């Protein structure tokens, strides 16, 4: 299974970024091969539609689970319609977030968060 975490950086000890569409990186963990990869989020530079761009990138990477702070309406719709489960986590180290997911300690997100405008944080 591929698990994706929205993150500030490329390393496992970097923090989860609660902004899905505007996070800098996606860290992807493959539970079958124990591989860890980090890819730049293409949505971070979008002046609008960051969530759509980010969600499509997740779909293209054949991810099954996303862990983030929240996903806006457009991102949620795309992920949900692609049968990608979304879980909520706090801004903690990515490796700790993955461990919490594997232990069944994270809450599944059942609805979209607020839409965000522009690139401001």
Uncertain runs are 117-121
- How much beta, percentage-wise? 15-25%
The SSE string, one letter per element, is EEEHEHEHE
The separation of the N and C termini measures 31 Å
> What is the CA-atom radius of gyration, in angstroms?
13 Å
CATH-level-2 architecture? 2-Layer Sandwich
Spatial strand order of the main sheet: 3-2-1-4-5-6
Number of strands: 6
CATH superfamily: Dinitrogenase iron-molybdenum cofactor biosynthesis domain
Largest sheet: 6 strands, mixed
Count of discrete alpha- or pi-helical segments spanning 4 or more residues: 3
Overall body shape: globular
**Helical residue percent band:** 10-25%
| Count of separate structural domains | 1
Helix vs. strand class: alpha/beta
CATH class: Alpha Beta
Question: Mean pLDDT, as a whole number?
Answer: 92
According to CATH, the fold-level topology is: Nucleotidyltransferase, domain 5
Task: Describe the 3D structure.
This protein is an alpha/beta fold and 121 residues long. The protein has one domain: Nucleotidyltransferase, domain 5 (2-Layer Sandwich). The chain is built from three helices and six strands, in the order βββαβαβαβ. Strands 3-2-1-4-5-6 form a six-stranded mixed β-sheet, with helices on both faces. β4, α2 and β5 form a beta-alpha-beta unit. α1 packs parallel to α2. It is globular and about 35 Å long. InterPro entries: Di-Nase_FeMo-co_biosynth, DiNase_FeMo-co_biosyn_sf, MTH1175_dom.
